[in-house]
Amino acid sequence: MKNNNFKLLLTFVGLLLISTIAIVNAQDDDNDRFVNPKFVKLFTPQNDRYTYSTINGSSEFYAMSSRDLIYFTVAQLNSAVDGSTTTSSNIFSLSTSDTIGGMTIKDSYVYALGLNTFYKINPVTGDNENIQDSSSLYTAKGAFTFGNNVFFLSSSPVTLAHIDTTLDFKSTNLLFSTITVAPYSFVVDQVNGYAFLGSDTKPDISIVDLNTKAEVGVFTNASITSTFKRSVPIVDTAKKILYYCSTSNNQLFVDVFSYENIATANTIEYKYSFGLITGSDCSTGSIDTYGGQLFFSVTTDSALLNLGTDPQGNNQGATELEGFEVSSLQTFADISTNKLYVVSETQVAIVSYASVCPNDCSGANAGTCIAGVCQCNQEYYGLDCSQKTCLQLNNCSYAIQGNGKCINGECICESIWDGDDCSERVCPGQCQGRGTCSGAPDYTCACELGYRGADCSETYEVPCGTFTESQDCVDHTYCGWCQVDGVCRKGDRYGPEDGFCRTWYFGQNVEVGIIVLGVIFIVLIGILFLIDIGTTPFVDVKRAKDYAEEFKTGAYPKGTHEEASILWWRDQRSAKAWTLMDQFQFISLISHIGVVFPSRFLNFTEYLDWTNMGIPFPPAINPPQEFTSTTGRALLTYSQYENSLGAGGLYHLANILFWFGLLCAAFLVPLLIVFIALNFLEGLIHWKEVIRNRIIHVTVRLLTVGYIGVVMASAYSLVTPLHSYKIIIPGAILVVVYGIGLPIGIFKLLDVPEARLHNPTFKQQFGCLYVNFKPKTDHRFVVFTFIKRFVMAIIVGILAFEPTPVYPLSGTDMAVPIVQVVVIIIVLIGYAVLLGIRKPYFDHYHLWLEYFLTGLNVITVGLSLTHLKNPSVAGELIACLIQALSLIACIAAYIISWLQMRSAFLEKVKKFFGFCKCGKKDKSKNVDMGEIPTKP
């Protein structure tokens, strides 16, 4: 026999095994191949272990030990509970123990081979016939049927015995055939009538013709002298392919043979080999010829593995049968249910297996897995039948001119074709929407300014200064419109490439809605403050007249409950207006966080920067611009913000202090002049007291309003790259004196007896700090609101240092904006927790307003993290909508405070709207006054 092919195998087997084993070991825990394992224990009445098993077709299961035979239906095995034991009702026992090494089923009889006895057993009736051969002790290796014959295999003596089941079961019916190979393993082709017997010491394979019951040839290789074990054979009867799992040099592999020409050549032809997972041996095996998958139960040092592979050794997957024996008696694949049955000496493992075809051919509607290859239905194509065809679309007109390609049921047309079936002629790429198509017969593109090429896909830069209209400017991705100067300049969504622009539009024209929303905010808070300022002097003057004599002595008259009540409700209402002012300051604050935040939201806050004195110097005193680097405006952080004011780091603190000083002077200087003048008018002593109270009140308010802006600018001055003592020293002094000193001073100011806190004169002067809080100690909660402002202002100012990172953010560049956002969120959440613990507000409406505003602000700041790299229109709109809700909440709380006040006007309104129940509960009883009178 020619063995050239087998010699070639030995030459390359080492390289083959190394490569395939490496691949398979990476997949040896493929949980997608084998799923839903179930273990059923076999009933063993004599504490014995089964030595042989067989599944008759796919309906009956038999297992035999040294004495006992158990049998039941496969359906019972499938329905058994995981971990349960099979029933003991179907048991047959031999009269004496024997060593059973082979068993097969024929016509409901079990034929088995012991040491020197051949058995014919009827497990139902209990009949048992046997033939004894006292001259031999058989080492049985198996039994099988073919036609009317039952065959028995023995390796010692080397014997192939057969019995004709149509004749009486007796010794004269037991015939023997000569075979060359001492069989260690075997497999039978029941269709073509051949048996293949393998050795456990050499690569020989004996070939037996079951029709003649004689050996017709032996496949051998004399050049192999090392130990070679043929462990488990599998046959594909349709393709006449023999797969033999073998072991050599402690490696497992599969030899693949063809026996298509066996009738004429009396031998088998070697085809190829592939490696398997490292193990000591193959235990048993089976094949799913329909799905094209081989299964082997592989014995390792510690466990038994289920291994599945396609016939070429690719797409291998394995799973360990935990708690199972390390070897098996039988492996059987039921192709009708895609279940694998692995039988050991004591139990059966039932495991479902997946198809080896890609994606299981995308389901029954798309294709069918046949022999490991997807056979697609007419409407689908592809290796896994996942792509839909375009049969209903004239196959994309391909039969005519090749106008397009079919991609998953959709025609993808060539650049000059269009339509559902690519039958319509168009200009190349339809000019990409950047030009005009000439139509027939030329179909050429006339490109717009800035684009060129046959399909207008190429771009070239038109100087931005060419455009005089904002819409034309922003239509070009590298140009932006500076609204202040009315010019088009090169840049990106965060500003011009050179210099700065206070109002910058990029990718969109001027948005009137944003401007209108900003104006609405400003007008609303202006109205609220005008109402409060306009209604205050009348009450103050009346009280000052009533107690003019007491004020001459410097006393603080206590006043009546009526006066205290009026002052208390007035400041409650005023507190809601100042809460709205605080919210505006917060919006302006977060616009300077060093993150890629929505540009439209930043443009919106431009109209609210006045709340933190974010107003450029007047042109007459504007300092020289220090902006020179094009990277300084890569992010609209606080450093870019100071550039947008027209001032460098050296002048920014001075800019803020200028407007803060101007604001203080505008309010305080006139009041001081009037106060000094009243010192010389003895008859107007009550007016002097009114002005004194207003000076104190306005001073406290101004210090509160300027707190965030001044502290933020001071903190930024400490880290400015200029490192000039002219800015660092003033910044440090302001952080200590103003940032830290003001909260401490307020704490000391309010650390007075409770009686003083309730005194109307004290309330007129400092009520804006504490009157809306509960009595005793919770009025000092205002200090915590300053601590919250201080931390946020410091973190934004200090972490806004230059140079700002280049967009898009990457690596450690993200650390600064992330820290800014995270710290502010922590501060806001801490503030909310403190609110929950102390509940300091006397008016519970104000408490819930603070809860609501804090939650909205946490969400707004959190949006910054989602826009670190990818700004979105949705994020911009969400941020604006959230802050619009804060406006609505503050206005609602303000209206509720009006309804809580007792006045003649409100009483008339409530009488007119009789259904309104608002304000009937007298909440002033919870303070220190009695009934709130109807009229002030």
Detailed description of the structure:
It is found in: Membrane. By secondary structure, this protein is of the alpha+beta class. The protein has a domain at 511-803 and 818-926. Helix 7 (561-590) runs parallel beside helix 18 (844-866). Residues 1-30, 625-636, 803-810 and 918-936 have low confidence and may be disordered.
Spatial shape? elongated
Strands, count: 44
| Helix percentage | 25-40%
Low-confidence stretches: 1-30, 625-636, 803-810, 918-936
Give the structural class.
alpha+beta
- Largest sheet features: 4 strands, antiparallel
**If you average the pLDDT, what whole number results?**
80
Subcellular location: Membrane
InterPro entries: EGF, Plexin_repeat, Teneurin
Protein name: EGF-like domain-containing protein
Main location: membrane
What's the structural blueprint in terms of helices and strands?
Blueprint: H1 4-25, E1 34-41, E2 52-56, E3 60-64, E4 68-73, H2 74-79, E5 91-93, E6 102-106, E7 109-113, E8 117-121, E9 128-132, E10 140-146, E11 149-155, E12 158-164, E13 174-177, E14 185-189, E15 194-198, E16 205-209, E17 214-219, E18 228-236, E19 241-248, E20 251-258, H3 262-265, E21 269-275, E22 281-288, E23 293-299, E24 304-309, E25 317-321, E26 330-334, E27 339-343, E28 347-353, E29 367-370, E30 373-376, E31 380-381, E32 387-388, E33 404-407, E34 410-413, E35 417-418, E36 424-425, E37 435-437, E38 445-447, E39 451-452, E40 458-459, H4 470-474, E41 479-482, E42 487-492, E43 495-496, E44 504-505, H5 512-546, H6 548-552, H7 561-590, H8 599-606, H9 638-644, H10 649-678, H11 685-705, H12 707-718, H13 725-749, H14 754-757, H15 760-770, H16 782-798, H17 815-838, H18 844-866, H19 873-900, H20 904-912
Antiparallel strand pairs: 1-28, 2-3, 3-4, 4-5, 6-7, 7-8, 8-9, 10-11, 11-12, 12-13, 14-15, 15-16, 16-17, 18-19, 19-20, 20-21, 22-23, 23-24, 24-25, 26-27, 27-28, 29-30, 31-32, 33-34, 35-36, 37-38, 39-40, 41-42, 41-44, 42-43
